[in-house]
Structures are given as C-alpha cells and as structure tokens.
Design goal:
The complex is a heterodimer. By secondary structure, chain A is mainly β. Chain A is built from no helices and 13 strands. In chain A, strands 2, 6, 7, 8, 11, 12 and 13 form a seven-stranded mixed sheet that branches. Chain A has a four-stranded antiparallel sheet with strand order 1-3-10-9, with no helix packed on it. The chains are: A mainly beta, B mainly beta. At the A-B interface, strand 6, strand 7 and strand 12 of A face strand 10 of B.
C-alpha cells in the first residue's frame, strides 16, 4: 500500500489568511507514461460526505472556488486555501489513486 | 442531476454478512468508462477505500479486505451492491458509494452508518 501522510493534523488560520495543508506519499505518484500525477484532494464538512476539490494534483474540480489550489509533484503535495472563508472550516484529505487508493489521515482546518 | 443513495441495514450482528445497495441517478453504469466505488469512514476517523466496479464489470478491491468483499451491479436497475462478510465491531462506519471519474470520486452519496453490535 502507498501510505499518505498529511501535516499538520490540525490548523487554525485567521479569516482571509492563507491555509496550507501538506501531503506526502510513500512513493512517487507520477505515472511516467502519461505524465500525470495520481493525487486528489477532498473537503469534508461536519456531517457531510467528502467533496472533490482537486484531481491530477492540480486540476480544480468544476465549481470549486479558485481560492483552492493544489500543487506538488512526485511525493510531496500541497493544498492551499488563499483567503480562508468561514465556510472552509472542514477536514481535508489527500488521496492517491496511483495504485489501490489510499487516503491521508486528514487535516482539520479551523478559524483562529 | 447526478445522485447516489446508499441503503441497507444500519445494525448488523458480529459474523453476519452486510449487504448495501447504491442507487444511481443521472448516470448509468452501462455507459463506457463509468465506475462506482465504495468508501467507508469509522466514526471520527479517516476515509478508507473498499473497492470499485467498472461499466465493463471489472472489479478492484482493497488488498486488506478483498477476501470479505464482493461488489456487483444491476445495470437494468442502475444499482451497485456491496457485500461484506464476517462483520466485526471494527467495521462500524459510515459507508459511502461514489462515482469515479478521472481516478478521483466526484459525486458521493450521503452515506449510511452501519453499526456492528450484538
């Protein structure tokens, strides 16, 4: 299994500031034959199912605000929320789909 | 509008077999390239992928659970069924079905909380 490790476990950010969530995979998620990186990011608000934010490491899902962006390559990835809004309070998960999918442990983002 | 809805028992006894159904709306598993997966989440814990079924009936399962899992589809009724044998209290979780696209899961059901207890 590919192990996904997120940091930090919890993060408190002031409204309007930037939130950064990190994710590290135990092996590269770059598939050389198509040059695609098999990583997604999800947002899960309390009592709701996850919502897909980003796939292929940096492609924003339709309808996702542009303050959310994904970056990174190989084994190290970042989800950035520029200008945190109150409605962004949630747990964020990274997920690899290079092999049998696995998720990170989640990062809880709250307002400072 | 694409929706998925899970249904099934909310309480099962240890050693029993769990059967959950996912009803699809707004898309069909008979369409080439479509896939539906199952993911679960124990209370207060992280997501765990269970398996996926493709339109062409190929299936993939979590290596750690594959001996206990079966995913099937009923294309005529637009349903996907998850069966998990030998249930244990550690299997207590919210079970989600979700549509897979571009490798990730872009539409999710609301989930069903299944408790395993005698």
């Amino acid at each position: 299994d590919i192990v996904m490790t997120q940091s930090p476990d919890s993060l408190a950010v002031s409204l309007g500031e930037r939130a950064t969530v990190n994710c590290k995979s135990s092996q590269s998620l770059l598939y050389a034959s198509n040059n695609k990186t098999y990583l997604a990011w999800y947002q899960q608000k309390a009592g709701q199912p996850p919502r897909l934010l980003v796939y292929w490491a940096s492609t924003r899902e339709s309808g996702v605000p542009d303050r959310f962006s994904g970056s990174g390559s190989g084994t190290d990835f970042t989800l950035t929320i520029n200008g945190l809004q109150a409605e962004d309070v949630a747990v964020y998960y990274c997920q690899q789909y290079y092999t049998s999918p696995t998720f990170g442990q989640g990062t809880n983002v709250e307002i400072k | 509008q694409i929706t998925l809805k899970e249904s099934g028992p909310t309480l099962v006894k240890p050693t029993q077999t769990l059967t959950l159904t996912c009803a699809l709306s707004g898309f069909s598993l008979s369409t080439n390239g479509v896939a539906v997966g199952w993911i679960r989440q124990p209370p207060g814990k992280a997501l765990e992928w269970l398996g996926v079924i493709y339109s062409y009936d190929d299936k993939r399962y979590s290596p750690s659970l594959k001996t206990r899992l079966t995913i099937t589809k009923d294309t005529s009724r637009n349903l996907v069924v998850l069966t998990m044998t030998n249930m244990d209290p550690a299997d207590t979780a919210t079970y989600y079905c979700a549509r897979r696209q571009e490798g990730a899961y872009n539409y999710w059901g609301q989930g069903i909380l299944v408790t395993v207890s005698s």
